[in-house]
Design a protein that fits this description.
The protein is an alpha+beta fold and 133 residues long. The chain contains five helices and four strands, in the order βββαβαααα. The chain has a four-stranded antiparallel beta sheet with strand order 3-2-1-4, covered by helices on one side. A hairpin with a 2-residue loop joins β2 and β3. The longest helix has 21 residues.
C-alpha cells in the first residue's frame, strides 16, 4: 500500500502533505528529512486511526513522492476489510483463535502473526497467501 505525499519548500523548511490524508502535515529541514518525517507521520496516523476503529481512506492520489506503508499496518487494515460485517468473534472462531488473539491481529500496534496464522487467515477467506520480498 502506497500513499503519495507532496513536498514544498517554505522558507528554510520542506513541508510534506498527503492529499489523501489531509490531517497529516509534517516538515523537515531538508527534502530527505521531510520524506522521513512524512513516512513516520503517515504510519503513526494510520496506526492510531486503525487502532481506534476509524475508517482509513484508500490511496487515490498518484503524484508526488511514494511512501510505502509498513506491512503490519497494511495487514491490520486488510483484515478489517476482509472481515466486513462479520464479528471478530466469528472470525476468531473460524481461525481457532481466542477473540483477544484475533483482536490483536486487527490492531497494528499489537499484531505480530506467525506465517501459520497468516495461512489460516488466507484459507478462511478463500485466498492464497503469497509472500514477496
Amino acid at each position: 500500500m502506497v500513499y503519495y505525499c507532496t513536498i514544498e519548500k517554505e522558507g528554510k523548511e520542506f513541508i510534506a502533505q498527503f492529499p489523501d490524508m489531509p490531517n497529516i502535515v509534517t516538515c523537515g529541514f531538508s527534502h530527505e528529512e521531510a520524506l522521513t518525517m512524512a513516512k513516520e507521520a503517515l504510519e503513526g496516523c494510520l496506526e492510531s486511526d486503525i487502532s481506534r476503529g476509524f475508517s482509513v481512506p484508500p490511496p487515490k492520489y498518484k503524484k508526488g513522492y511514494p511512501i510505502t506503508v509498513a506491512s503490519h499496518i497494511v495487514l491490520s487494515l486488510r483484515l478489517r476489510e476482509l472481515r466486513g460485517e462479520q464479528s471478530q468473534t466469528d472470525i476468531a472462531r473460524k481461525l481457532g483463535l481466542s477473540y483477544q488473539a484475533y483482536q490483536r491481529l486487527e490492531n497494528p500496534r499489537k499484531a505480530n502473526p506467525t506465517v501459520k496464522t497468516l495461512e489460516k487467515i488466507a484459507r478462511v477467506y478463500g485466498r492464497e497467501l503469497s509472500i514477496a520480498f
